[in-house]
Amino acid sequence: MRAHCLGFPRIGAQRELKKALEAYWSGQISQQELERVGQTLRQQHWQLQADAGLDWVTVGDFAFYDHVLNHSLYFGVIPQRFQTNETTTDLDLSFRLARGRAPTGQDAPACEMTKWFDTNYHYIVPELADDQDFHLSAHRLLAEIKEAQGLGHTVKVVLLGPLSYLWLAKAYGNQQDKLALLDRLVPVYIELFSQIAGLGVACLQVDEPILALDLAPAWQAAFERAYHKLQRRDLCIVLATYFAPLNENLYIASRLPVSGLHIDVVRSGQEWLQALDQLPDYKVLSLGLVDGRNIWRHDVHASLDILKPAYERLGERLWVASSCSLLHVPVDLEAEQQLSSEVKVCLAFAKQKLAEIACLKQALLQPDAVTVQRASQEARQAYQQLEQSTRWRNLAVQQRVAQLTAQDAQRASAFEQRALIQHQRLQLPLLPTTTIGSFPQTPEIRRARAAYKQGLLSESDYVIAMQQEIKQTLAIQEELGLDVLVHGEAERNDMVEYFGEQLQGYVFSQQGWVQSYGSRCVKPPIIVGDISRPQPMTVAWAQYAQQQSQRWVKGMLTGPVTMLCWSFARTDISREQIALQLALAIRDEVVDLAKAGIQIIQIDEPAFREGLPLRQQQQADYWRWAVLAFKLSAGGVSDDIQIHTHMCYSEFNDCIEAIAAMDADVITIETARSAMELLTAFEQFAYPNAIGPGVYDIHSPQVPTAAAMKKLLQKAAQGIDKQRLWVNPDCGLKTRAWPEVKQALTQMVQATQELRALWQ
Ligand SMILES: Nc1nc2c(c(=O)[nH]1)N[C@@H](CNc1ccc(C(=O)N[C@@H](CCC(=O)N[C@@H](CCC(=O)N[C@@H](CCC(=O)O)C(=O)O)C(=O)O)C(=O)O)cc1)CN2
Ligand code: MET
Ligand SMILES: [Zn+2]
User: Fold this and answer.
1) pLDDT digits 0-9 by tens, 286-341
2) Is the alpha carbon torsion for 126, 132, 136, 139 positive or negative?
3) 603 alpha carbon to ligand 2 midpoint, in Å?
4) What is the pTM of this model?
5) Average model confidence (pLDDT) for the chain?
6) In degrees rounded to 5, what are phi and psi of residue 55?
7) For the chain, what is the largest distance between any 2 Cα atoms, rounded to a whole number of angstroms?
8) Domains and CATH numbers, the chain
9) What is the C-alpha separation between 238 and 253, in angstroms, rounded?
10) The complex's ipTM?
11) Where in the sequence is the active site (predicted)?
12) Ligand 2 atom 4, closest CA
C-alpha cells in the first residue's frame, strides 16, 4: 500500500518563486540565482513529502512558468518565430514562449494561454505546426530526478500523458487533426520513459486528465494504440485522472496495459465502486480522497467507508492520494495568524494535506494509532462546532433566495429597446473605446495598501492616496481620448478578494497564495457561511470617479459566478445556492450604483465558462443557475442603465447560447491572442447584443501597433455589425506598466479613429 500526492504547489509558501521570477525578468537577479530559488523550493517540497510519511516524493511537477510549457520544451514544440539563432538558454526560451520576452533572445508574440480544465490555473497552449516534428530534450527533468535521488528520496516521476498533451495543444495551419501527430509523439515518450527508467526510477505517474472529459471515439481509441506502445515492465506506470468521473472512459482506462489507475474520488461520486469491479486484478487503484481543489480539512472517518471495502478487495494494490495535484491550494496553513480558531481547525492547505494522505494509509494499517484517532476526532469536532455556530448563518438571506422569482432576473425591456434608450442617454460614437477595468497596479499602490493593512498608513491617508491614483488614471484616459472611462481599480487587491473582504460570510488567509499563471498569484477568499452585503462596497469610489470627468465612468463589479469560482467555497450547501446568495449581494450593489448616478455598470464574469462541469451530463443544470445568478445580479435596474460583462481565457463555442441568455448590453471578451478566432462563435450564433472583442493582448509586455489592431477590428467587422462593436483590450491592465499601457491605448484609439473615418 502506498500514499502519494499527485503534485505540490511550486510557488513557495512566501511566493519565493514569484519574487525570483519577477526579479529575474527585470534584470535584478541572474539566471543562476533564479535557478537556485527553484532548486531550494523543489528540495523543500520533496522534504515535506518525505517528512509527512509519503512513500514517494513527486518529481516533475516543478515549473518555472508552467508544466505544460515544460513538456513543449521536452518535446521540441517550439514555434518557428522563437527559433532564432542568437545565444540564449532553454529557460529564456520558455519565458519567450510564455510572455513574448525574456532577458535574452528576441521578442516574438507569446503563445496563447488558457484555463487548465475547470480551474483558475492557466497553461501555455502548445502550438503545433503543420508537419510538427518532435524530438526529445528532457535534460531538465532528468536533472531534477537525479537531484531528488541525490538527496536520498524515493522518486515518483509525473508527466503529462501524450493524449492529454495533444488534446491541450492547438494545431495551427492546415493540420487540424492533432491525433494524426500521435504516432510521431509516442516514440518520443517511449524514449523519455526509457531514460527515466534508466535512472532507476520505479514509479511513473502519467496524467491523462482528458479521460474525465466526453471524448470522441477517435480519441478513445487512440488511448489503446498509444499505451500499447508505451507499456514497459521495468516501470510501475500509474495513469492519473482527475477533476471529473471517467464514466464510459473507465472501461478504457481500466484496460490499458499499465500498472494502475488513479481516480479523483472527490469529484467522481461512487465511481470507485465500479473501478473496483472493472480493474484487472494485477492493477493498482489509487484513490484520490484528499481534496486538491479545496481547503477543507479531510475527514478520515468518512473516508474509511470507502477505504475499508477497497482495502478488503485490493489489499496492497490500494493506494491513497490527493484527488489531483495540490497546485490548486495554498502551501501552509500554519503561516495563518488571523483566522479565527473556529474556522482554522476546519482547514488544511497543501502541507497539511500531505499529512492527511499519510494518515489515510495509517488509518488502514494501524487503525488504533493515536494519530489516526486524534485526526479523526478533531476533524469531526471541528466541523460540528462550525455547523453549530450561528455566526455563519443568515436566515434573512436564505429566505430571500427561497423567495426569488423569474421576474427578479428580467430586465424591463428586450435588448433592442434598451439599446435605443441607452443610445439616447449615452451619446457614444461609432466603435466606442473603453478598457476592461484595471490600470497598472504600481509598486506604490501596493506599498500603500500594505502599509494601510499593517496600520502604518491611516484609512483617510490611504483613501486620499487611492483617490489621487484614480484621478490621475481618469485624466490619462481623457488625454488618450477613450470614450468610456474606468476608475482603474487601484483600491482593489484582487477582483474577487476585494469583494469577499466586504461581504459577510467570507474569511481570508494572509498567505494563502495559489498560482494563477506564471508569476501571478491569487489569494482566494474562503466562503464559510451565508453571504450578505452589510453596506455598499464600491459606491463611494465610483461616485468620486464620476465626479472627476464629464465622460461616462463605468461602475466595476465582479459577478456572482466568478466570485464563487475564484473563492474556496463551503460544501454544505449547493454551488447554486451560494451563487444566488452572491448574486443578491451584487444586485444590491448594482442598484446602489445606479442610484448614485452611475450609468454604465460592468459585472465581470471571467470565470463563467470555467465553472462549467467537465461532463456534458451536468452542464445544462450549471448553465441554468449560472445564467440566473448573473441575470439576478443585473436585473434590478431600469433599461437606461447599460450593463456590461467581461470574459477572458475561455472557449465560447460551447456556451454561446448561455452567454446570449445572460443578456448583457455589452460583452467584452479576450480575442487578440487568437487573432479573433473566438469571435466566430458569436458570429455563427448571430449573437444579438453589443460586443467588444479584445484587440490588445494585455498579457504580453509587447505593444501592438495601430495597424495590427485595425486589422483585427476589420476582421471582427466582417462577422459583426459595426453598430454593435466596441473597441477595447483583452482584459484588465493591472499587470502591465504605464509606459506600455499608454502607448498601446494611444495606438488603439488611433486605429479606431481611422476606422471611424472609413466606416461612418
Ligand atoms: N482571482 C483572480 N483570478 C484571476 C484573475 C484575477 O484578476 N483575479 N485574472 C485572470 C488571470 N489571473 C491573474 C491572477 C493574478 C493576477 C495578479 O496580478 N496577482 C497579483 C497579486 C494581486 C494581489 O492580491 N495583490 C495584493 C497583494 C500585493 C503584494 O504582493 N503585496 C506585497 C507588499 C507590497 C509591496 O511591497 O510590493 C506583499 O504582500 O508582499 C494587493 O495589491 O494588495 C500578483 O501575483 O502579483 C493577475 C492575473 C484569471 N484569474
Ligand atoms: C480577469 S478579468 C479582469 C477584469 C477586471 N475588471 C480587470 O480589469 O482587472
Ligand atoms: Zn479578463
Assistant:
1) 999 999 999 999 999 999 999 999 999 999 999 999 999 999 999 999 999 999 99
2) negative
3) 10
4) 0.97
5) 96
6) -80, -20
7) 80
8) 2-388 (3.20.20.210), 412-441+476-502+537-759 (3.20.20.210)
9) 10
10) 0.98
11) 699
12) 732
